[in-house]
Amino acid sequence: MTVSESKPRDPVPGEAEAREQAETAARSQMLERLATTLGGNATAKAVYGDPVQQGDITVIPVASVRFGFGGGEGSGEKAAERSRGGGGGGGAMAKPIGYIEISNGTAVYKPIRDPLVDIWLPMAIAVLGATAPRAIRKLRTLRHP
């Protein structure tokens, strides 16, 4: 979101700067409140819900939650006009990484495995291991006929 304004110069020296500083402070406070509110709500519970209980077993979701927020503003003068603009944005991301299982008075963390690491990486290593000797032999025959 971007906001732009154009106003004629203020005739009283110093008044425009004081007003601009007050407006900047108000915008900064609003951005800080917004970031605090959004950051406080970026939790595993907000994404995956409350712990689940079935009989004597309780499962608590665990997530990696990331949150970022930024903003900026600027001003400039040209001819007899003063202009200002600003903008901001933010976002949050949550990824399940595991769960805590509580049963019989014992808590155990159980990670959710990444299929890339568990399946694709070993497959890639196996294919590389199977094809590398043939490729090396081929390169040697090309160098020394």
Automatic annotation (TrEMBL):
Pfam families: Spore_YtfJ. It comes from the Bacteria. It comes from Actinomadura barringtoniae. Coiled coil: none annotated. Residues 1-22, 75-84 have a biased composition (Basic and acidic residues). This is Sporulation protein. Residues 1-27, 71-91 are annotated as: Disordered. InterPro entries: Spore_YtfJ (IPR014229).
